[in-house]
Amino acid sequence: MTKQLNELECRLLDYIEERLSEDADIPSYEEIRRELQLSSKDHVSRLLDTLEDKAFIQRRRGRSRSLMLIRTSDGRGYYLGRTVRIPLLAVAAASFDQDPYDGFEPESYIELTRDLVPDETGIYALQVRGDSMIDAMISDGDIVVLRQQEIAHNGDLVQVWVNSEESATLKRFYHEKGKIKLQPENPTMQPRYFPPHDIQIQGKVVLVIRQLEQQIAA
């Protein structure tokens, strides 16, 4: 038991950890009330508020059973073994001359730990093809994880759909002199410019998963 917690708070954290270790759902307020023999759901709510204030749990307001365990009752970070499935929605063409859906498996998923993706709302993954982003440490075969959004700021690394090209690409985004500049991260390639109405932002990169190849010296 940490000095931050009283006995009841520790019991609740242990109960939540036990449920998660069994791959069960997050317990409801009523299940917590019965397990801890509390008088009311209001008591449960106050107890969870305290644990959230102490950074042991995290909740998304307005969503049922959205509680995430951040630390256990002994203070350990609760990440190991807790994963979230992220859909692999498409292949990210790093160049305009590639089919972004070539070889795409629509039922593919990747699994990431909660410390990497604490909130999976709007999160999806793409496997990169092409070498236009190598200076951003993104190479052919790497996987990028993005959050869906329709707005970008200068310097953001985004997936965009170019209407006139009928293709998607992964580039640095800039507003420049009334146009949208899509900047590759490869010194051998030049940026391209498009009118704003020609560009649809689809998502912003939040994580890169590199595909490492083991090299054996001859």
Describe the structure.
With 218 residues, the chain is of the alpha+beta class. It has 2 domains: 7-69, Orthogonal Bundle (Arc Repressor Mutant, subunit A), CATH 1.10.10; 83-209, Umud Fragment, subunit A (Ribbon). The protein has 3 helices and 11 strands; from the N terminus they run αααβββββββββββ. The strands form 2 sheets. A 9-stranded mixed beta sheet has the order 4-3-5-6-11-7-8-9-10, with no helix packed on it. It is elongated.
How do you describe this structure in short?
The protein is α+β, with helices and mostly antiparallel strands and 218 residues long. 17% of the residues lie in helices and 31% in strands. The chain has 2 domains: 7-69, Winged helix-like DNA-binding domain superfamily/Winged helix DNA-binding domain (Arc Repressor Mutant, subunit A); 83-209, Umud Fragment, subunit A (Ribbon), CATH 2.10.109.
Largest sheet: 9 strands, mixed
Question: Could you say what the CATH topology of the largest domain is called?
Answer: Umud Fragment, subunit A
Number of contiguous helices:
3
Q: What is the CA-CA span between the terminal residues?
A: 54 Å
Helix content: 10-25%
Classification by helices and strands: alpha+beta
Spans of at least 5 consecutive residues whose pLDDT stays below 50 are 98-104, 214-218
At the fourth level of CATH, the homologous superfamily of the largest domain is Umud Fragment, subunit A
How many structurally independent domains? 2
Question: Could you tell me the strand content as a percent range?
Answer: 25-35%
Which architecture of the largest domain per CATH? Ribbon
Rg on CA atoms, Å:
22 Å
Shape: elongated
